[in-house]
Specification:
The complex is a heterotrimer. By secondary structure, chain A is an all-alpha fold. Chain A has a domain at 34-97 and 108-132. Chain A has 6 helices and no strands. In chain A, α2 (39-59) runs antiparallel to α3, α2 crosses α5 and α3 (65-96) runs parallel beside α6 (161-168). The longest helix of chain A is centred in the middle third of the chain and has 32 residues, at 65-96. Chain B is α+β, with helices and mostly antiparallel strands. Chain B folds into 4 domains: 1-160, Four Helix Bundle (Hemerythrin (Met), subunit A), CATH 1.20.120; 166-413, no CATH class; 414-508 and 644-657, no CATH class; 519-641, Tick-borne Encephalitis virus Glycoprotein, domain 1 (Sandwich), CATH 2.60.98. Chain B is built from 21 helices and 10 strands. In chain B, α7 packs antiparallel against α9. Chain B is globular. By secondary structure, chain C is an alpha+beta fold. Chain C has 2 domains: 1-30; 31-137, OB fold (Dihydrolipoamide Acetyltransferase, E2P). Chain C has helices at residues 2-29, 36-45, 130-133, 137-141, and strands spanning 30-34, 53-60, 66-67, 74-79, 87-92, 107-114, 120-128. A 5-stranded mixed barrel of chain C has the order 2-4-5-7-6. Chain C is elongated, with a radius of gyration of 21 Å. Classes of the chains: A mainly alpha, B alpha+beta, C alpha+beta. At the A-B interface, α1, α2 and α5 of A face α1, α2, α9, α15 and α16 of B. β1 (383-386) of chain B pairs antiparallel with β1 of chain C, so a sheet runs across the interface.
Chain lengths: 169, 683, 142
């Protein structure tokens, strides 16, 4: 007897649980929500991560100065492109999204937190280059207004022209 | 409870099939209600399989020998521990256990993605439930139902094979199965990416942690298996290139390759087709391993008639899965174009590609060697087997090449590396490696391959240590942090990279341990109480073992035990003594089980086997005259480094998998998408 | 492209080396995997077969095992799984696996050389009490 009751309970419960969404018309979310990784986002992250890796590789002596500059400008361009695309796309999604999705507050997730941190890091490096604090010979980031690099002793502010072109181009 | 478990298995099948259909149709037609129903099916199947497993375990614990499966793998006196483990002791229970784990991971995947990555979920649900349903069909219709009843209830079961009555039995198979089943999740996401056309890198980003998890369990499962073999079955060996062992190694090799090649796709947008192929291959190999370990297809080439049905069902399933995946890849081929090209031959992506090719070469050679008897029998009528020499010969150079790559990889930058920097970075490690080789050679190590292995391992270790030091220094300089903090941040900010390096250290330790086998020593001697056996270690000292005689206690589920005691001296100084046993288990009176004694030291193990007791019957009765026995004593060099390496691999794996800070979502979320939208909005 | 060219040469090289290793590995370590009946037929046909390493799967004849006193030398007889009249003696000098015995129907796979004197000199013995792993209903009754 107990068995029969148990079986009926289990099967009825399972069937009800499984079929309820169809019967009641509950819908699962099908589209992406606005806070998760998008394809553009992934590209941006990749580029930023690439920049960080490149800087690390350069500083630990795996990359030549020239290669580093080339890679850096290339990656920075990719990252910027992705960021621009993202802000453009973000606009579109905001308009098209269902009200409840749009109503959700913008929140910080792993990817964004990491992205922010990376962006900050990249910005700092770029600023350093612009201010002439990053040594062009060894890549060491010096204290403001230094005249000579504490990393290699070379004179600061002598960015090789081809590297400068690569960065700005 | 048992009957409920059996019925739950029957209910699970229609639920699984409905869920799979609902997932696919819901995804295609964008019917959110069907998708939600499919997701509920995933939870329901998991729940039902918990009931089924509970039913089987209940049958074991309550000694219900009316069930064929219980009667074959248990007996009344079996300790509770092993009765519970009876769930995976045999083929039938293992299949249930497999679906149980798969449905658990499926439920976990659906649950963690209930508010994100929604575009993928319909097809993920479809694929996962298709696979679960396949296993349920096998369980119910391929003569392997664990609830099959005998026409009568035997008074007692036949007992669990004594070789399985070891604590590793409760650890090793579940770990491997966790690894096998966890890999189904990345496969399902990959297929979903193909089906839904979301072919960017997201499916990899989503499943990265799953891939690591699966890899982690596979690696640990394999190492546990080696440890089990070393303690129980191996007479001091740990790997025998036995088909079942090979089958567990194959998915690990493919998963390792995949783990590296996805990084190329993440970083460079290349190899999209390759990764799709590799995820399918790895998944198929987990299925292959699952059925090979329990079907006995290979070992008994001439007597395999008993299990052909299930073997063919599985082969057909693998064929269908491979076909579907290939068709999907072909269909989406235009969208899977590479975004970039290899910029330089000297780049990390190129090193990773070589690593992929070499790992797959190893996997192929092992698969080929394992299936060789079947292939040759099919082609020529005469089976030809290849033994351990084949596997060693092929995989030794492959292993060395992989070691070299583990050293080269970290030093080469992504995209391009300059030759001059390479030379500079390699100088010190090469010098260290050569110095190690020279020092060992002068100390009398003249085994070429072993020297090469030790040299390479010193080379790789140096590179990795230098990497850590340089990384810490660079970070300390960039961020102006103290070195300790910089080191912590270095690892915690890029866990996958640095955790990966730690895993490499573990793997190198394990490879180094393999080379130690070349220096093992062994000795066989028959002794009476009071006699001594002396064996030298390759490190120069000498062990003297004095035989103290046999005693005969009785343990649980054992008929009799004969325990031989040896006191041990090292260069004349007494150290920990050793025991070795012969045990007769209840229900297995005709084959005594040999239990070895191991004393482990950092660089070597002293390993004692009680080969034979002249008068075992007399020894069991504690007769004074029945004490003469034959022993095999071994000094196994460096074997402990396999297990130490295993710990390091585990540590590195955990670091790589550890969730990053801030990954927990804090915002409130809506549970479902709400009600069906108005028709106008959908059209 | 130059870099791609270099690259494919490298990959092709690796593939070739692996193929070479497999090829030579197979030809150096291959063993015929036979039943006792097939082994007897082979040897009759071609006496040089005595020199070749073979792997044979058969069954241990009940009551045939003996062990030389104080010596690690085991003798037993292997019979064909289907034709029990085909048998040959085996010599083995190492530790036998725990699953080996001569009181039940134990299936063995032995590796070694079938000597001219009709004795099989085994270097590897694997045993599996096939019938013990999964019993039929009748066996459980007994």
């Amino acid at each position: 007897m107990g068995l029969i009751v148990g079986v009926i309970l289990v099967s009825a419960g399972v069937i009800l649980f499984v079929m309820m969404p169809v019967l009641r018309g509950d819908w699962a979310v099908m589209g992406r929500s606005d806070d998760e990784v998008t394809e553009v986002d992934a590209r941006k992250q990749t580029a930023l991560r690439g920049l960080r890796d490149a800087e690390y590789d350069f500083r630990s002596g795996k990359l030549d100065q020239a290669d580093y500059e080339l890679l850096k400008s290339d990656l920075a361009r990719q990252a910027l492109e992705a960021m621009e695309e993202e802000s453009a796309a973000g606009h579109l999604i905001d308009e098209g999204a269902p009200p409840e999705a749009a109503a959700k507050p913008a929140e910080s997730t792993t990817s964004e937190a990491e992205g922010d941190r990376l962006e900050a890091e990249i910005a700092r490096v770029r600023k350093g280059m612009a201010e002439g604090r990053t040594c062009s010979a060894c890549g060491h980031l010096n204290v403001k207004k230094s005249l000579f690099c504490t990393g290699c002793g070379g004179r600061l502010g002598e960015v090789p022209t081809e590297a400068r072109d690569a960065v700005s181009g | 409870m048992i009957l409920l478990g059996e019925l739950a298995l029957w209910i699970a099948l229609p639920v699984g099939i409905w869920g799979a259909v609902a997932g696919f149709v819901g995804g295609r037609k964008e019917r959110g209600d069907l998708v939600l129903s499919g997701e509920h099916c995933v939870y329901a199947v998991f729940f039902l399989l918990v009931l089924t497993s509970a039913g089987i375990i209940t049958a074991f614990v309550t000694d219900n020998f009316e069930y064929w499966y219980v009667a074959n793998y248990s007996n009344r006196e079996l300790p509770l521990f092993y009765k519970v483990a009876g769930l995976w002791a045999g083929q039938r229970g293992s299949l249930v256990f497999w679906v149980l784990l798969l449905s658990f991971f499926s439920a976990a995947a659906v649950f963690t993605n209930r508010t994100k990555n929604r575009e993928f979920m319909p097809y993920v649900v479809g694929v996962l439930l298709t696979i679960s349903s396949f296993f349920l069909v096998v369980l119910l219709f391929a003569d392997v139902n664990p609830f099959e009843r005998l026409p009568f209830a035997p008074a007692d079961g036949r007992g669990l094979n004594p070789q399985l009555q070891n604590y590793w039995m409760t650890i090793h198979p579940p770990t491997l199965y966790l690894g096998f089943t966890a890999f189904t999740i990345p496969f399902a996401f990959a297929m979903s990416a193909l089906l839904s056309g979301k072919l960017d890198t997201r499916w990899i980003l989503i499943t990265r942690r799953w891939i690591l998890l699966s890899w982690f369990f596979l690696a640990n499962g394999i190492i546990f298996g080696m440890r089990w073999a070393y303690e129980m079955l191996g007479w001091g060996g740990f790997w025998f290139w036995d088909p079942v062992e090979n089958a567990s190694l194959l998915p690990w090799l493919a998963a390792t390759a995949f783990l590296h090649s996805i990084q190329i796709q993440e970083n460079r947008g290349m190899l999209k087709v390759w990764n799709m192929g590799l995820v399918t291959l790895t998944f198929l190999l987990t299925i292959f391993a699952t059925f090979l370990t329990r079907s006995g297809l290979i070992e008994s080439v001439h007597t395999f008639a008993e299990n052909t049905k299930i073997a063919f069902i599985f082969l057909a399933f693998m064929g269908v899965m491979a076909g579907c995946s290939a068709l999907l890849i072909a269909w989406r081929y235009p969208q899977l174009k590479s975004e970039n090209q290899i910029q330089s031959f000297l780049s990390r992506e190129s090193a990773f590609l070589f690593n992929n090719l070499i790992l797959l070469g190893a996997a192929f050679s092992i698969l080929w060697g394992t299936l060789f008897p079947l292939i040759t029998e099919g082609l020529t009528g005469t089976a030809i087997a290849v033994g351990p020499p084949f596997f060693n010969r092929v995989n030794l150079p492959i292993g060395l090449a992989l070691m070299a790559l583990m050293g080269i990889g970290p030093v080469i930058a992504w995209r391009r590396a300059s030759r001059r920097n390479l030379v500079k970075n390699f100088r010190m490690p090469v010098i260290v490696g050569s110095m190690v080789v020279a020092a060992l050679f002068l100390r009398g190590v003249h085994h070429g391959m072993a020297l090469l292995t030790f040299g390479l391992s010193a080379f790789v270790m140096t590179i990795i240590i230098v990497e850590f030091v340089k990384g810490t220094k660079a970070r300390a300089r960039i961020e102006g942090e103290g070195h300790l903090l910089a080191f912590y941040h270095l690892v915690s900010r890029n866990r996958r990279r640095w955790g990966g390096y730690i895993v490499h250290v573990g793997v190198v330790m394990i490879f180094t341990a393999f080379a130690g086998v070349a220096f093992n020593r062994e000795l066989i001697q028959t002794v009476d109480p009071g006699d001594t056996i002396t064996i030298g270690s390759p490190f120069g000292h000498e062990y003297t073992l004095t035989y103290q005689g046999l005693s005969s206690p009785r343990g649980k589920n054992m008929v009799r035990q004969a325990v031989a005691l040896m006191t041990v001296e090292r260069n004349g100084r007494p150290i920990e003594s050793l025991t070795a046993e012969k045990v007769l288990y209840v229900k297995w009176e005709s084959s005594p089980l040999t239990i070895v004694g191991i004393n482990s030291y950092i660089l070597e193990d002293l390993y004692l086997i009680l080969e034979n007791v002249n008068d075992l019957g007399g020894a069991f009765e504690n007769e004074a005259g029945a004490q003469r026995a034959t022993f095999k004593v071994q000094v196994n060099v460096l074997v402990g480094w396999i297990w130490y390496g295993g710990f390091v691999v585990t540590l590195g794996g955990i670091i790589a998998m550890w969730p990053s800070r801030g990954s927990t979502r804090t915002a409130p979320r809506t549970k479902t998408g709400g009600k069906r939208p108005a028709l106008a909005a959908r059209s | 492209m130059k870099e791609n060219g270099k690259f494919f040469v490298g990959l092709g090289g690796v593939a070739l080396v692996v193929t070479y290793l497999i090829w030579t590995g197979v030809s150096e370590s291959m063993l015929y995997y036979l039943t006792p009946v097939e082994l007897m037929a082979r040897v009759e046909q071609d006496p040089t077969f005595h020199q070749v390493g073979v792997k044979v799967s058969g069954r241990v004849e009940r009551g045939s095992w003996s062990r030389a006193e104080d010596e690690l030398l085991h003798h037993f007889t292997v019979i064909d799984l289907l034709d029990e009249s085909v048998r040959f003696p085996v010599e083995y000098r190492d530790i036998l696996p725990d699953t080996f015995n001569d009181t039940e129907n134990v299936d063995v796979v032995i590796e070694g050389r079938f000597r001219e004197d009709g004795v099989f000199e085994a270097t590897v013995v694997l045993a599996k009490c096939g019938s013990r792993y999964e019993a039929t209903a009748e066996e459980l009754l007994g």
